[in-house]
């Protein structure tokens, strides 16, 4: 454990490097802008999956309401862009110029008060970053201080996702209803719909993704990450050691919420709309499978998980739409039953097998093969995760 | 919001909405009873519960067609047979699912949740492939049509009354089974202390399978009753699953009485508010209140004290 106190191990550097080469060099060179834009969209889900790795894989808290935070971030960004697209000149044909078109269709004559601050980009960015964690904090305080966790927490977060979806759809005049906020055009006068803008936004998204990956890496390598694993595995012992367990849980839940919200904002910028179909129960639980497929203990795995599941979804729904739900259902069951640690766990165990067989061949036959000290702690974490959660 | 109505109108509104609430209550109770057995007694999260219910609804649909085509003279009583078929089909599928999936995951409740969600997606697509994406409905036999006039403003539909009577019967049967029969004693023994129950000779694996199958079977009957009130589509089950889980959790997961009490509270609150507010706002308010109360009192209304 102490031998591996360097911030990056060699293997981490290789993993990050491979991901960077894939996202920055290989994909942009091999795809046209339409496909690359889709990859950008998948990457915005990767933020949510990363948050779930921290929250679920390390903290043991399964939230089925990450779509709520994704939506809060996405809607904040969409409200800003929509206000910019609804200048009085652009909306002169409406009965009330200067307000978003769906408000005009719903007989609203003035901008609601909570839309006003979204004229400012600074406020919007702050809202993207802090509204979702604040909301998560409220839920977290109410739940974790009372030691509610596990299954109950999952059900309640799911209910929150249901409530927010019904609210957004019901309050059509304020939120755009079931269609969501569409027809977004410019960001500070810069047209986000052109191919050039889409390239730039893709690279911005990749840069933000790597910043968040490093932040997660930092959290997990710190003492906090160790404590989270300890809480997941033996909550009582951590509590008896004098730690306030609930505060750590609240922190990691809020952190995951912030990551989701950033993902939501990146989604809105790249895809050009935001709707309640990305907030509800179904998308929220799909986001869990991105994380589960990639490996619930690997932040890089989460990125690959989001990319693979979404790419498969797009390909399959284009080719055989009726098979997609079967594949998705089989994926849920297969990941849970066959490889609970996901692709990262699979890669890890293959690597272990390779290393031990090579060592066993090299070392004297009597000597027991030992795993590298470098990996000892991670291996331990992985094996325990299967029996827990 | 009450100012626009006279007192007699208000009374009639409350009576009508109260009755509509009772219909919703019946559905909630029927769905939640199965879930309360599976979740409350076994601690298994079955996200595919709604799909078991829909299986019962489709069985009813098939039965009604078989009776209409081959036994038109008995058409009036097809519903009784349909309920039996629905119970058997859903129960058998439940036993199969327990054997293939659930028993491997008893120690990982959160993973059960994900696996059963996957199962629900597969079942939904099966229904869509077999029965089509469109919603189907059944023709009610004549004796269930019509309504009973209570006063000049209030009419009570007969099918609603029938569903309610059915709910009461099933609830009573479940109560008898769980608290008065030998088998129920075994189930409760396994819930309270699994190793000790095994030590006194109870086959805990068999009890688990039967309990899960029973819960699914009741969901099938619920689906059968559901066809009398609404039409059935491949995704109808998903609409109710969150509500049902909230009902069970709100009532205190391991208490059947609590489940019924909370189903009553939630359905009445929702249908009364639906008249004065829009449907979506009524739902939002109800869910918010339930979630709020659960945050203050996580163990639910009726908590059973058991040693963990």
From TrEMBL, chain A:
Molecular function per GO:
branched-chain amino acid transmembrane transporter activity
| Organism of this sequence | Marinobacterium stanieri
Signal peptide position in this chain?
Answer: none
Matching CDD domains:
TM_PBP1_LivM_like
| Region annotated Disordered, chain positions | 360-389
Entry's localization field: Cell inner membrane
User: Can you supply one Gene Ontology CC term for this chain's record?
Assistant: plasma membrane
Task: Name the keywords, alphabetized.
Answer: Cell membrane, Membrane, Transmembrane, Transmembrane helix
Name of protein: Amino acid/amide ABC transporter membrane protein 2, HAAT family
What membrane topology does the annotation report for this chain? Multi-pass membrane protein
State which residue ranges cross the membrane: 13-30, 42-61, 121-144, 151-170, 199-220, 247-267, 287-311, 323-347
- In which residue ranges is the amino acid composition biased (Acidic residues)? 371-380
TrEMBL record, chain B:
Say yes or no: keyword Transmembrane present.
Answer: yes
Protein name according to UniProt: Amino acid/amide ABC transporter membrane protein 1, HAAT family
The cellular location(s) given in this protein's UniProt record come to: Cell inner membrane
Task: Tell me the keywords, alphabetical order.
Answer: Amino-acid transport, Cell membrane, Membrane, Transmembrane, Transmembrane helix, Transport
Q: Which PANTHER family match?
A: ABC TRANSPORTER PERMEASE PROTEIN, BRANCHED-CHAIN AMINO ACID TRANSPORT SYSTEM PERMEASE PROTEIN LIVH
InterPro entries (alphabetical): ABC_transp_permease, ABC_UrtB_bac, BCAA_transport_permease
Q: What is its main location?
A: membrane
Q: Which family does it belong to?
A: Belongs to the binding-protein-dependent transport system permease family. LivHM subfamily.
TM segment ranges: 12-40, 52-72, 78-101, 113-131, 156-178, 212-233, 239-263, 275-296
Q: Which GO terms describe its molecular function?
A: transmembrane transporter activity
GO biological process: one example: amino acid transport
Q: Which topology term describes how it sits in the membrane? A: Multi-pass membrane protein
Q: Which Pfam families does the entry link to? A: BPD_transp_2 (PF02653)
Example of a GO cellular component annotation carried by this entry: plasma membrane
Q: Which organism is it from?
A: Marinobacterium stanieri
């Amino acid at each position: 454990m102490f031998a591996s106190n360097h911030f990056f191990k060699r293997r981490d550097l290789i993993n990050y490097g491979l991901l960077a080469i894939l996202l920055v060099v290989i994909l942009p060179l091999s795809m046209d802008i339409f496909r690359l834009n889709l990859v950008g969209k998948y990457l915005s889900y990767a933020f949510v999956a990363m948050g779930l790795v921290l929250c679920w894989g390390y903290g043991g808290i399964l939230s089925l309401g990450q779509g709520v935070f994704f939506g809060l971030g996405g809607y904040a960004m969409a409200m800003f862009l929509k206000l910019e697209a609804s200048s009085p000149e652009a909306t002169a044909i409406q009965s009330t110029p200067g307000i978003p078109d769906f408000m005009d269709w719903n007989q609203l004559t003035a901008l609601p008060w909570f839309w006003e601050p979204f004229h400012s980009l600074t406020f919007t960015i702050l809202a993207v970053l802090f509204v979702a964690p604040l909301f998560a904090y409220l839920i977290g305080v109410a739940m974790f201080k009372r030691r509610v966790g596990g299954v109950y927490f999952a059900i309640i977060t799911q209910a929150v996702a249901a409530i927010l979806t019904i609210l957004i759809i019901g309050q059509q005049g304020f939120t755009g209803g079931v269609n969501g906020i569409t027809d977004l055009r410019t960001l500070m006068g810069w047209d986000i719909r052109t191919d050039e803008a889409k390239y730039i936004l893709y690279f911005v998204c990749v840069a933000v993704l790597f910043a968040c990956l490093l932040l997660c890496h930092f959290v997990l390598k710190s003492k906090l990450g160790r404590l989270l694993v300890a809480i997941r595995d033996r909550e009582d012992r951590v509590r008896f050691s004098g730690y306030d367990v609930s505060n750590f849980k609240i922190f990691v839940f809020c952190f995951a919420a912030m990551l989701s919200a950033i993902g939501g904002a990146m989604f809105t910028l790249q895809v050009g709309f935001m709707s309640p179909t990305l907030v509800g129960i179904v998308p929220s639980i799909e986001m869990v499978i991105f994380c589960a497929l990639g490996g619930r203990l690997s932040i890089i795995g989460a990125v690959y998980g989001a990319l693979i599941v979404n790419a498969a979804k797009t390909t399959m729904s284009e080719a055989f739409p009726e098979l997609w739900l079967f594949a998705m259902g089989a994926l849920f069951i297969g990941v849970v039953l066959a490889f609970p640690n996901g692709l990262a766990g699979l890669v890890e165990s293959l690597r272990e097998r390779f290393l031990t067989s090579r060592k066993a061949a090299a070392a004297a036959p009597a000597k027991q093969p030992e795993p590298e000290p470098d990996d000892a702690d991670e291996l331990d974490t992985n094996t325990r995760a299967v029996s827990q959660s | 919001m009450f100012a626009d109505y006279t007192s007699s109108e208000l009374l009639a509104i409350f009576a009508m909405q109260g009755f509509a609430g009772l219909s919703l209550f019946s559905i909630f109770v029927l769905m939640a009873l199965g879930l309360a057995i599976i979740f409350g007694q076994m601690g298994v999260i079955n996200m595919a519960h709604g799909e078991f219910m829909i299986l019962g609804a489709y069985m009813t649909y098939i039965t009604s067609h078989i009776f209409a085509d081959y036994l038109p003279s008995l058409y009036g009583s097809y519903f009784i047979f349909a309920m039996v078929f629905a119970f058997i089909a859903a129960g058998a599928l439940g036993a199969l699912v327990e054997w293939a999936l659930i028993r491997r995951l008893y120690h990982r409740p959160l993973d059960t949740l994900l696996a059963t969600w996957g199962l629900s997606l597969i079942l939904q697509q099966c229904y869509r492939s077999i029965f089509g994406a469109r919603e189907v409905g059944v023709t009610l036999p004549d004796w269930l049509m019509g309504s009973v006039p209570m006063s000049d403003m209030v009419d009570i539909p007969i099918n609603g009354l029938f569903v309610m009577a059915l709910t009461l019967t099933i609830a009573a049967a479940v109560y008898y089974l769980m608290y008065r029969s030998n088998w129920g004693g075994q189930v409760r023994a396994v819930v309270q202390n699994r190793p000790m129950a095994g030590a006194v000779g109870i086959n805990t694996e068999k009890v688990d399978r039967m309990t899960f199958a029973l819960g699914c079977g009741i969901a099938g009957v619920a689906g059968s009753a559901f066809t009398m009130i609404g039409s059935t589509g491949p995704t109808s089950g998903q609409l109710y699953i969150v509500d049902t889980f909230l009902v069970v959790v709100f009532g205190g997961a391991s208490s059947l009485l609590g489940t019924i009490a909370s189903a009553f509270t939630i359905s009445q609150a929702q249908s009364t508010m639906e008249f004065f507010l829009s449907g979506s706002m009524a739902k939002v308010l109800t869910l918010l209140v339930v979630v709020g109360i659960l945050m203050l009192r996580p163990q639910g209304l009726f908590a059973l004290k058991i040693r963990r």
